Amino acid sequence: MSARDGRTARAGTGGATGGGTGARAGAGGEVTARIEAAFRAAGVTGHLHAADIDTGREIGVRPDEPVVLASVFKVPLLVAFHRQAAAGLLDPTEAVTVRPEDRSAGPTGISALLDEVRMSLRDLACLMITVSDNAAADVLLDRVGLAAVNETAARLGLPRTYVDGGGRDLYDAMLSDGGVDSFAELWARLDEPGVLGRLRGLDPARTSRSTPREMTRLLGLVWRDEAAPPDGCAAMRRLFGLQVWPHRLSSGFPFDDVLVSGKTGTLLTVRNEVGVVEYPDGGRYAVAVFTRSSLPIAALPGPTP
């Protein structure tokens, strides 16, 4: 389906959701079968939900099964942050100092820097979303509070969305469960018997989790100015639009007049993205895709012969 077919496809696929493949008779079943085929071709098990933000028409492949959030947990954290700012519980312009020894591990943002950094809470939020900065996310999580994030999810009608901890907690748990000292060592041991099964971070029952449908619901609330006051929702949409990674949702819509905003999540064999695709005719679609590879390799699909 071409990215330019979005408004036409909406009429043919609305309502084709459910467990299993999520397929029903007609065009909806054909589309979900193509989605399943794409997952198989990529060598992953996938979960997907897509919804028209304004009409509610939807399509899904296992949209209500629990999935590992990985860095997608930063989306409900961002929403909780803006709701607290609107309530006067925190000042988003407050400057904080983040010392090297206090930072969570990660390859981007201030996680990768060597010196002391001082910046505002809202600029930390920017790094958390645009480059998935783990250290910035953990500073915000400490300020907002884990309980507040989960209470926000519940208030917004997301009963199956639960944030178990921040980036530091997840990183430490993965190393502890794997019995290793670094992620490089963990990657090297992933194909050893029993290692994958021990990792709590890859089990939605034991880590931060949600469902594809709840993530598209949350994005819809942000895009309709219902997750927080309008200025807060506008600020969130701006950050999602500035995300730098072009290789997941954005790669499917290579058109100058189609805007894709989103947040990725990557953790070993887990690769996710949730986002919103906006067409020039006004169509707005929330999309959540969660995948897990059956192979312990970093790049999928592999080269074809």
Short description:
With 305 residues, this protein is α+β, with helices and mostly antiparallel strands. Strand 7 (259-267) and strand 8 form a beta hairpin.
Can you describe this structure?
By secondary structure, the protein is an alpha+beta fold. It contains eleven helices and nine strands. A five-stranded antiparallel β-sheet has the order 2-1-9-8-7, with helices on both faces. Helix 3 crosses helix 6 (146-155).
Shape: globular
How many strands appear in the DSSP assignment? 9
Order of helices and strands: HHEEEHEEHHHHHHEHHEEE
State the helicity in percent bands: 25-40%
| Number of separate helices | 11
How far from one another are the termini?
26 Å
Strand order, biggest sheet?
2-1-9-8-7
CA-based gyration radius: 19 Å
Overall pLDDT metric: 90
Assess the beta-strand content as a share of residues.
15-25%
Features:
305 residues; alpha+beta; five-stranded antiparallel sheet; two-stranded antiparallel ribbon; 38% helix; 17% strand; disordered N terminus
Secondary structure topology:
Blueprint: H1 6-13, H2 27-42, E1 44-52, E2 58-61, E3 67-68, H3 74-86, E4 95-98, E5 117-120, H4 121-130, H5 134-144, H6 146-155, H7 167-178, H8 183-189, H9 195-198, E6 209-210, H10 212-223, H11 230-241, E7 259-267, E8 270-278, E9 284-293
Antiparallel strand pairs: 1-2, 1-9, 3-6, 4-5, 7-8, 8-9
Helix pairs in contact: 3-5, 3-6, 4-5
